[in-house]
TrEMBL record:
InterPro entries according to UniProt: AB_hydrolase_1, AB_hydrolase_fold, Epox_hydrolase-like
Pfam family, one: Abhydrolase_1
Protein name according to UniProt: Pimeloyl-ACP methyl ester carboxylesterase
Segments forming domain AB hydrolase-1: 56-296
Organism: Nocardioides massiliensis
Amino acid sequence: MTSNGPGQLAGSVLQRGLDQGSTAPSFWVEMLGTEVQFRTADGRRTRSIESGQGETVVLLHGISGHAETWARNVAYLGQSFRVHALDMLGHGFTDKPPIEYSIQALGEHVLGFLDAIGAQRAHVVGQSLGGWVAGWLAIHHPDRIASLVSVTGAGLQLNEAGAAITARVGQKVGEATMRAVTSPTLASVRTRLEWLVHDPTIITDELVQTRLQMYTRPDFLAIADQLVTSFTTGPDPLELLTSERLSRIACPTLVLWTKQNPTMPWSVGKRASEVIPGAAWYLMDRAGHWPQFEKPAEFNAVLGDFLESVVDRTGAWSTGGA
């Protein structure tokens, strides 16, 4: 990847702004040239932010998130791929039906989106809950997944001892999220967003206002409690990403984690990369649960290089980090 792409520029400008104590650049400036689309996917009105041409890349956000999770990445990746950052089912401006929310339901909605855009296969990049959905798709629908990238992915339960970690992490995420979504205010939303990152100064007023708009939508308030509970305190054991299930993943895979992730420890992510056959591993420093937003220059370079290596079939991708 070149060093002067939009993602690299975004990262350098962002860091200069923070170093000088000024406001970070608007993520709408960073998304100039992208487009917002609404389609019917699996019978549901679905919003996406899109850019570029080439092989299909789908970006999936975390619990209670939305497509702007990928604001600092869509334009950069769009230089080489056709990129679609989704509002997943029950999130953002996508429909929020009164259903029992599950990983399968979210995964089938993604498959419906691929059908809607005419894509037989896609490279799927998932962060947190999105990583869980992406992993489920790679296991249960391998014919539709060209490659998998899990970014601080949720849903991992690699052994019996890991069950306690999974429960503890689920409770932590659930409590942090519920405080924001049940009575959303500028303060509660800011607290939730600052919890996602290593450096809280990265959370701008613009981002807080954007998410507050999402959280105060009547359709989201109607399902928020059930949605959050489904994936935190009451996940379906049959949908957890166990070692046996991960070992069935056959597509090229990158597991990307951070040293300061506030949910699952990086050692668990590392172990997942060892269970998935042939998976690559990358560990970022000085980043929390949202490395794609907090350190976009490094994230874009690593992800772009991995995806290009998959497309080129050269296998010449060098793992980095510790």
